[in-house]
Amino acid sequence: MPQLNPNPWFFIMLTSWLTFSLILQPKLLSFTPTNSLPNLPAPATTTKTTPWAWPWT
Hints:
mainly alpha; 1 helix; about 40% helix
């Protein structure tokens, strides 16, 4: 079966992943997002939860 032969496809996959991880990924990660979120303080309020009343207990 020719689809089980990894000879040409493994090299293509390995080359594409190395290209992406060594060349393209650092270039893409160097960009800063234009719509960055402001540094908002965390809310100081905590919510009080009540336990669930199970009918069979």
